[in-house]
User: What shape does this take?
Amino acid sequence: MLGTLRSDGSPRISPVEPYLDSGELLFGLFRGSAKAHDLMADPRCTLHSIVDDPDAGQPELTIRGRFVEVDERARRADPNAWWLSFEHARPLVGTIEVEAAALVRFDLSAGELSIARWTPSDGVVELRKPYP
Assistant: This one.
């Protein structure tokens, strides 16, 4: 899910299809969409992974930063990228300049939760605690 800021400052969450290519996280948006409009007006955003089974202990990743449109080389790095099928619409394709990230892992058999947080100033800081 992508969290953006509307023009009035209220949050908007929208589904996106993140895509990893050559170690870079990319996602595409149709330029006429509300989320693309939000990012063009204010690039601050949050990307959060989707958990499809809350009882399976799936990890959760949250990335916070600023949206940056990528160049033509990055747009075309993988010929299977979905946005290449919509070139006539010139989709907005970008990445996030990461300002902070958090990874939450659940070890259900050990009854433990670990939270690893990263910021440029603090690096990685990890916290472990009992779960649930």
About this structure: The mean pLDDT is 92.
